[in-house]
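Let's practice the habit of predicting before peeking. Look at the sequence and jot down your guess about where helices and strands might fall. Then scroll down.
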Amino acid sequence: MARRSWAEPFKIKMVEPLSMTTRAQREAAIAAAGFNTFLLRSRDVYIDLLTDSGTAAMSDRQWAGMMMGDEAYAGSENYYHLEDVVHRVYGYKHLIPTHQGRGAEHILSRMCIKPGDFVPGNMYFTTTKAHQELAGGRFVDVIHDRAHDSTLEHPFKGDIDLGKLRALIDKVGATKIPYLCVQCNVNMAGGQPISLANLREVRALCQKHGIRIFLDATRAVENAYFIRQREAGYAGTSIAQILLEMCSLSDGCTCSAKKDSLVNIGGFLCVNDDDLAEQARGMVVVYEGLHTYGGLAGRDMEAMAIGIEESVQEDHIRARIGQVEYLGQKLIDAGVPIVRPIGGHGIFIDAARFLPHIPREQFPAQALACALYVESGVRAMERGAVSAGRNPDTGENIFPSLELVRLTLPRRVYTQAHMDVTAESVIELFKNAPKIVGLKFTFEPRQLRFFQARFAPVVGSRVLVSEAAAEPVGAKQCCCGGGGCGGRARV
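Done guessing? Here is the structure:
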């Protein structure tokens, strides 16, 4: 029997008009933004796939909950509702709310990391790594090597390589490892999950050496979905049960509620240790707000509590992942190189394979994200060398094995028709990939440079040029990356 079509498990109650722009307007907008999609104005974007962080559409129940906001400075009723929901859904003992996920990362890092410590994790995430380094630590990647191969079809590319973790413990000693950071649905690997089998092995090793485990539970619900789909023995288990089992194998978590939890702002830190909880409550007062609001309004905590409950509903998570798979399959069918298998929160285009004529020093993922915007008004983001930053010892650019453009799908926001438009735009761009030119920095911030950096094309003034204006593929560029020597020196 042929597979039947499916539709979203909700109906649209309110609409927000989208901006329709001309190509000339988009050319001007991306140039004004320094060829950085983060610096585009929202009004100039048609389909916004920059991030799934804080971009979800809230439900009628969440909007109704907003009207139940208890805005007391201390002891808000919404905090106690949120605390109860987090206990039931995630299973941790203590809840410390924060304004968003990086607030929780900051507090955890300041509490646990000392200068000279090493923090292993299954691939870095930008803000997490930044907080660890600002606290004096050094991130060490212990993800399995298969995560670095975009073409490999493996169900759990987020798994930790126990050999790498053991080697780090042997090299620096367990006392120099404050905790292991385990990311669920590893973002920089293309939204790839970790298996429960691997998590159990990791837990046993860490317990042997007295090392705590903290989950980055930002997309743990999506990870739970993939466990049910791909891991033996879980086909009949609910998403909620799998999530609880994942969390039971850790000592706490940081979480940006702006993803799985379906809210526009909010996050939390959870711990099981009483002493750590006391420390965290003291620090949240300094950096976020009182321990019963953590930088959030009561109405935000109420919407978060309701969103957490909705996030583990079967129909919701099936449709959420289904829309990502729908877009991904269209691109696969057209031969567009993306990270395989399709991940949880977005499609990750392999920019190095999409644009083989652009050297890594000219940031092909950044160039591709800009070209996609010019082509279609679709805003995506770079996840490659620009995001990776520089080596803290040498100052050299870090060139990760994956040079990606992320098409991140907001939850409950866009229709399948928007996915069709996006797919068609990427496919058309793929046919014209040789017309895309690389980029060079014109401004580079010290921290998290991908947010505010500015660029210029290495040739001309456009990143996506007409055939007449384009320099032939493979043409040699200036030694300086374009223009600085007036074109006199060629390499």
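How did you do? Confidence is low (pLDDT under 50) at residues 467-491.
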